[in-house]
Specification:
about 375 residues, 16 helices, 11 strands, alpha/beta, 7-stranded parallel β-sheet
Length: about 375
């Protein structure tokens, strides 16, 4: 029986992880953590019987305790509670599916406790990759990517890593989002409802907005740098509108290996949980007889400046990726609340990066301080 903890259990990745658990009879959920959606969390507690559950807000945790008083489960809250969930003693793998930099501390705590990480919280590596990757090596724990693109790269390397065959180039695919081919003038009138209509993937609100601006792809480039020990300029973004090729790897001899499949997040989730075993996964399959072509395009970094800024932040390193990420988090939050226009998201990121004094090799405390300073800058200007 494989035992797991799921951080962010009520979100898109979290609920799909529990669907994988539901479809397999040999995974036990020992801990769950969520933000404030206690109605869904109660249902998860009653179905999966975890030992420990964390709710971010204490008032919601108190309410949940009353709702599940008849269940044998401990309900905790806050960052301390999140770390408790990440380090629940019996869990072997921790699925980190929380959104934002809140995932850094529990991920580090889980690794220090010797647990493998099924990583869906890209902000952890984007902002603290220089801490996370050496720690994984020191503790002998595995970081198993859950993002479809990074899982694809990971799968393309199977059998190559063991023989010392190094990556020459990563070809990180992108759908291009709902506004592929649009100009900035066209995007000036984009509303929240427009940006939440992703052409291929069903995801949470924040990541869907990030995909529309291509900021998400920029974060994935920075994440890939750390996961696969490459330089930023070894990661090339390729727009593949059908989301059939999830990413590719070019090796030093020029050979390119690609991972293909339908756009279903349960595949990389299940692969991470059972790696290196492949299990049957119900769902649609690619039909190559009806698939007439696969198209590729070069990303438009002028109209989608978020991707261009991500490369700049990744090359700069230090606390600059933190500023990029934090500014985007705050900007997307404001856009979803209809406080700013769509194009202002990228303007906020650029202004925050220009104002920042970079710290090299930051500690976790310095990373979180850079996040705080970025939030304060944005609030003072917008």
């Amino acid at each position: 029986m494989k035992k797991i903890a799921v951080l962010g259990s009520t979100g898109s990745i979290g609920t799909q992880t529990l669907e994988v658990v539901r479809n397999n009879g040999d995974i036990q959920v020992t801990a769950l953590a969520a933000g404030r959606n206690i109605k869904v969390l109660e249902q998860q507690i009653r179905e999966f019987s975890p030992k420990l559950v964390c709710v971010w807000e204490e008032d919601k945790a108190k309410e949940l305790r009353q709702m599940v008083a008849d269940c044998d489960v401990a309900v905790v809250s806050g960052m301390d509670g999140l770390i408790q969930a990440a380090t629940e003693p019996s869990a072997e793998i921790v699925v980190t599916a929380v959104v934002g930099m809140i995932g850094i501390r529990p991920t580090i705590a889980a690794m220090e406790a010797g647990k493998d990480i099924a990583l869906a919280n890209k902000e952890t590596l984007v902002t603290a990759g220089h801490i996370i990757m050496p720690l994984a090596k020191e503790k002998g724990v595995r970081i198993l990517p859950v993002d479809s693109e990074h899982s694809a790269i990971f799968q393309c390397q199977n059998g190559e890593r063991e023989h010392g065959n190094r990556i020459h180039k990563i070809l990180l695919t992108a759908s291009g989002g709902p506004f592929r081919g649009w100009t900035r003038e066209q995007m000036a009138k984009v509303k929240v409802e427009d940006a939440l209509k992703h052409p291929n993937w069903a995801m949470g609100q924040k990541i869907t907005i990030d995909s529309s601006t291509m900021v998400n792809k920029g974060l994935e480039v920075m994440e890939a740098k750390w996961l696969f020990d490459t330089e930023m300029d070894q990661v090339q973004v390729v727009v593949q509108p059908q989301s059939i090729i999830h990413s590719m790897v070019e090796f030093e001899d020029g050979a390119v290996i690609a991972q293909l499949g339908t756009p279903d997040m349960k595949l990389p989730i299940q692969y991470a949980l059972y790696y290196p075993e492949r299990r049957f996964l119900p769902g649609d399959r690619l039909d190559f007889w009806s698939l007439q072509d696969i198209r590729f395009e070069k990303p438009d970094m002028e109209n989608f400046r978020g991707l261009k800024l991500a490369y700049q932040a990744g090359r700069a390193g230090g606390t600059m990726p933190t500023v990029f990420n934090a500014a985007n988090e705050k900007a997307v939050s404001k856009f979803l609340k209809r406080e700013i226009s769509y194009l202002t998201i990228i303007d906020m990121i650029e202004a925050s990066m220009e104002a920042h004094r970079k710290v090299e090799h930051p500690t976790v405390e310095q990373i979180l301080e850079a996040e705080k300073e970025t939030y304060e800058l944005i609030e003072s200007r917008w």
